[in-house]
Amino acid sequence: MRCCGVTGARIVVLVAMSLVFVGQVAASTQAGRTAEPAASQAAGQPQDEFVPVKALPQQEQLPAAPLLMTAYAFVWAVLLVYLWTIWRRLMKVEGEMHALSTRIADRVGRQ
Question: Could you give the CA distance from residue 65 to residue 25 in angstroms, rounded to a whole number?
């Protein structure tokens, strides 16, 4: 069954490719980070005063971009799967309606 030139296999391939892309982006951003500890942490002293986010080392900042892209990819994947299931059910109902209309036409033709 085809609708607008998109098959279920193509949707699965597109979702898989987008998830692989997001995984690669997240891995590349994690690889680019340095593993230097903060100056106060390196000395073994606990932090006892406010430190602005801009003053924190790169490893201690929240990696927002990979998390955001992963969340968007997940939402798109769920949306595509949901639309695919609706499309399959719609095709099934259309097939049943077509079969019913042919049965009705056959009965009317016999009478």
Answer: 9
Per-residue pLDDT of the chain (111 residues; tens, 9 = 90+): 455 556 777 777 777 777 777 777 666 666 555 444 444 455 556 777 887 777 766 665 566 888 888 899 999 999 999 999 999 999 999 999 999 999 999 999 887
The model scores a pTM over 0.70:
no
DSSP assignment of 40-81 equals HHHTTPPP-S---GGGS-GGGS--HHHHHHHHHHHHHHHHHH
Cα-Cα-Cα-Cα torsion 86, 89, 93, 94, nearest 10 degrees, comes to 70
* C-alpha to C-alpha distance for 38 and 77, rounded to whole angstroms: 38
CB contact at 8 A, 29 and 66:
yes
At 77, the amino acid letter reads A
